[in-house]
Amino acid sequence: METTVQPYMSILFLTLLNFSTFLHPSLSDDPFCNPEDKKTLLRFKKSFTNSQYILLSWDPITDCCNWNHVDCGDTNRITSLRFVGYNLSGQIPPQIGNLPFLETINFDNVPGLLGPIAPSIANLTKLRYLIITRTNVSGPIPEFIGSLKKIEFINLSYNRLTGQIPKSIGYLPKLGGLRLDYNTLTGSIPESFGDFKKEDFYLYMSHNKLSGKIPLSMEKKDFTYIDLSENRLEGDVVPLFRSKKKMELVDLSGNLLRFDLSKVEFPSSLVSLDLSENKVFGILPEQLTELTGLKSFNVSYNKLCGKIPVGGNLQKFGESAYFHNCCLCGSPLESCLSLAKILTFGLCLIECILSRYEPF
Ligand SMILES: *[C@@H]1O[C@H](CO)[C@@H](O)[C@H](O)[C@H]1NC(C)=O
Ligand SMILES: *[C@@H]1O[C@H](CO)[C@@H](O)[C@H](O)[C@H]1NC(C)=O
Ligand SMILES: *[C@@H]1O[C@H](CO)[C@@H](O)[C@H](O)[C@H]1NC(C)=O
Ligand SMILES: *[C@@H]1O[C@H](CO)[C@@H](O)[C@H](O)[C@H]1NC(C)=O
Ligand SMILES: *[C@@H]1O[C@H](CO)[C@@H](O)[C@H](O)[C@H]1NC(C)=O
């Protein structure tokens, strides 16, 4: 009995399946895109002047989950927008705020992208990754970023952002990495930047115009990577290194930092340290020879003095890691006993001593 029914059943089933795939060409393999999201994306497309070629696949008769540059994950809602190296020209369209399931925004190397970070992004409470890099986006970093509590990673490097860094960023509970490097940000680093919750945090804020002291609160945080180079930061960073276990990369070069290097306790986890082009004084501590993992090191263009300790990797870094100081000497620089050194030593010593007491 069963054996005679089964073939008819499967024929009927196959017919139904064919019929439904005819109605919805993609139902069989992909989820059908939410109509509101589709409408929003089509408006988003219209707001760029040159999108007809870049967004050729954004055709209203097809399933928008199958379009290029978007992704629906396992749902029928748009969860990701990605443009890497596609030169869309215009502003970030306000419609972006009407894609409520968006988790990833990625505009990378889109030089035609102009204007501010769209205020409507404030609506995207599910956002986890905000990447707007290598664009001509300008204006301030909006305060609302601090209320997107699901954010895990922000990369806003290489744009034209100006103004102060909102302190609310420091309170984002899931943030694990922040890149704001290569903009024109001003003001001081917010006190809240010592409150980042995640372990293995990385912070890149180089090549801006940040000024003032590095906040005391940040001295407690064990940053894995911290790059604050090429700013106008001042003060003493000795406590930043104290009792740290994870610190691997520290780049503070090209600032106005003034502290006694002989007081620094270097974490044994250090791989890369750049303190060049500051006003660092004192001697190189012997402890530097114990940093066996140190691969990159630079203390050039400071006010350091005395003999470079011998051992560890210190002699491997080459002259340019040490040159342009007051009176550093010994391998890989010239011997501390050379005639030229002795002649200039007196003058250097005076300069070094004065550099400690130079008024701010
Ligand atoms: C990107 O597009 C803008 C505006 O159309 C144009 O001025 C710019 O030269 C383009 N950049 C590249 C790298 O193609
Ligand atoms: C955007 O920035 C690039 C350099 O980063 C520049 O070549 C380009 O002309 C700028 N303007 C536009 C409208 O793309
Ligand atoms: C924010 O989302 C709501 C609901 O989806 C929508 O009505 C509103 O237009 C959005 N606001 C902006 C600025 O996009
Ligand atoms: C952030 O953007 C910069 C510039 O495009 C890029 O070099 C860097 O790899 C990005 N960082 C991450 C972690 O994606
Ligand atoms: C150290 O930094 C100085 C100044 O930026 C640079 O000229 C030099 O090449 C660097 N040397 C090394 C070994 O990184």
TrEMBL record:
Q: Which GO terms describe its cellular component?
A: membrane
Q: Which InterPro entries match?
A: Leu-rich_rpt (IPR001611), LRR_dom_sf (IPR032675), LRR_N_plant-typ (IPR013210), PGIP (IPR051848)
Taxonomically, the superkingdom here is Eukaryota
Coiled-coil intervals, chain numbering: none
Q: Which Gene3D superfamilies match?
A: Ribonuclease Inhibitor
Q: Where is the signal peptide?
A: 1-28
Domain Leucine-rich repeat-containing N-terminal plant-type residue range list: 35-72
Q: Where in the cell is it found?
A: Membrane; Secreted, Cell wall
Q: What is its main location?
A: membrane
> Which keywords annotate this record?
Cell wall, Leucine-rich repeat, Membrane, Repeat, Secreted, Signal
Instruction: Give the family, as the similarity comment puts it.
Output: Belongs to the polygalacturonase-inhibiting protein family.
- Please state what the protein is called: Polygalacturonase inhibitor
Organism whose genome encodes this protein = Morus notabilis
